[in-house]
Queue: 2 jobs
Job 1
Amino acid sequence: LSDPLVREPLLERLKALEARNWTAKPGLGKGEGRAIVSPHDHRITVGTTFEATTAEVDRMVHAAHAAQVGWDSLGGEARAQLLERAADLYEAHAEEFFSLCIREAGKTLVDAVLEVREAVDFLRFYASEARRQFTRPLPLPGPTGEQNELRLHGRGVIASISPWNFPLAIFTGLMSAPLAAGNAVIAKPAGQTPLIGALAVELMHQAGVPKDVVQLAPGSGRVVGGTLTAHPLLAGVVFTGSTETARMINRTLAERDGPIIPFVAETGGQNAMIVDSSALPEQVTRDVISSAFQSAGQRCSALRVLFVQEDVADGMIKMIAGAMEALKVGDPSDPATDVGPVIDQAAKKVLDDHLKWLDKNAKKICRLEPPKEAKNGCFVAPAFYEIKSLSQLDRENFGAILHVIRFAGDKLDEVVEAINTTGYGLTLGLQSRIDTVRDYVEKHARVGNLYVNRNQIGAVVESQPFGGEGLSGTGPKAGGPHYVARFATERVTCVDTTAAGGNASLMA
Ligand code: UN1
């Protein structure tokens, strides 16, 4: 993108795509229409979504249930090939996805490119997992004359409930892992970003995944999410979003009729970075800026609380504040923009309220100005405040607000304990050149992803399986070796291969 020969023609093609009017419709039926507007400028309408009603969701689950056995019996190899074909189609339609990521979700161009890359990685990786675990039975030990085998099968219909902050990547991950395992999927995109989800599902169908096997269910959490999770035919739920919504889903699952089913949730975080006096200041500055402010801080992996050893704190804080001043906040379709809008007015209000609280209870270090066009959009410019202790923050603040706390060099154990005490356990950054410090943090910090001497966002599928523990989610890790099997049921077949069959042993 830094090469004008690549960037300029791409920007022209993206400009041309702005004329498109997009639609998201439930898999079956019509539902009710609602306009989707751009978070950076509410005067721009990106398209229309038709929300699924309770009756439509019910019909979709029944159709998916009827189609699932056929999908499961295709086997891992055939499903892998279809997911790989979908990955090719995603790549062929990458620019439409860029355009939608920018306009519907307010992503910067760089984030839009990363988003499509990650979605394609999920499709290819879960395809390879279908091949690895779902094509041959696993032979199990046993005495001579007995053959034992374990096979993985899809469980049935899985509800895939995904967030707006990765409207393509996470949407695709949560849809394709259960598909790889032989399930039918009802994919509920976030209320803010159904148009991206609609294009994704359309490409799945074009790739050859049957229409009833993967269906789009746009709509509200209450109507679509509520009906899906309470449905007696449902065989599992996979969810990424807030910890509160995960609790609500858990309650619905506990009270519903029907089988006991798995719930895979990836939720919030209160992510910290620990910087000691052996860290390299330039590197810390670069990594803090991207961890805290890229994607306008709207990543569950993002850095919220920076712990800096007091001996180096003044210098570090100054360098970070200086680097913040260089960030450009504004229109996400401008390739020079570093920080775009937040997703909607409700998100902005929560962050603005937190900033008001910080103005009263913390020390302001740096706060950028929102851009001129802010009045038509949802902007919360990056902010940096010093607080006294982590216990002052009672919840995750999902935006570009960074807090810093100083700690004494001999109090590393207390810092790690404070981080564990939040109950969240998603990402943790550590900037230190001291091996014993790293060993200590690795042993004691209860987090899912520890990043040492680098930024703490942008987990790569397969190389850095992603997900937390405690209030941050159930696991297994997305993009990791245990994820797809979580959506499968295990069946063991035991065959007596002696001539006499099973009765011989009864008579002996
Ligand atoms: C999320 O924001 O919900 O590592 C999780 C990363 C992303 C985080 C996704 N994969 O930054």
Job 2
Amino acid sequence: YNAKRAGGGHVVYRRNDDQESRLRLELTTALRRDVATAAMILHYQPKLDLRTGVIRGFEALVRWQHPERGLLMPDVFLPIAEQNGLMSALTQNVLSQAIRECARWHAEGNRVSVAVNASATDLRFECFPQQILDLLDAHDLPAKALTVEITETMMLTDWATTDRVLDRLTSMGVRVSIDDYGTHHSTLSYLRRLHTAAELKLDRSFIADMLTAPRSAAIVRSTIDLAHDLGITVVAEGVEDAETLDTLREWGCDQAQGYHIGRPAPIAALKPQFAKS
Ligand code: C2E
Ligand code: MG
Ligand code: MG
Ligand code: MG
């Protein structure tokens, strides 16, 4: 900041930096106020079973209904939550809403599952599994109806705690899913270490060009086979057209998500999708 102020030619940049940090400060204050409230709303995206054509469940994706700035997407506020110690409160709020909603679906006769994205912070808290158990009990939802999605980078630090938390979740009956599979380093070592994972989600980047790039196609096909050898369900992320969906079905992929199947949407818009299940 000082260096920029010293250099006379950086006035414009300095002003942008100021605006940027003012916006950040404003969002931080507002997020602290809203993080545990109904201002955090969930959109749900369907997970389609490719063998039966039935919707098996929904992934909960958080948005922030900001009073002045409208609907904000997770890439805007997740880093702010992470940096200000608000992540656990956010996850609790998301879990609570998602589990309550899923229990309601079950009560209406739709035995679908719900998936929630965890953060690295969550996996470092020994009490995280117990918090989930309490919410499941409170809403009378069976643990197997809940999937917790994690990414490989979340397992980089504090191995011992992370492994214990994931083992505990699995022994409770909660499904653990490896999100964005294939985008990180040492993906295969994580697959070996994460012996309790029930599902992997092949990253959108492989799905996007699998019809045009033979290397992506080979990676998708062999990952499906590898996962099946390990007894793991494969979900393709980011399916945007019918041809990709048909090809994934041919290759034996278990489930798919993507704009072609259904965009993330508020609860009120989900009714027609239930009709398909
Ligand atoms: P993710 O868990 O990998 O979720 C998939 C993202 O891809 C979502 O973006 C979704 O809207 C988008 N998407 C789905 N289908 C398609 C498609 O066909 N094409 C394209 N281009 N995009 C598609 P979103 O909702 O912006 O979420 C971004 C990321 O934010 C998520 O990636 C997840 O890592 C994180 N996130 C979302 N909700 C939560 C939450 O409640 N807690 C935590 N800790 N992280 C969350
Ligand atoms: Mg996810
Ligand atoms: Mg993903
Ligand atoms: Mg992603």
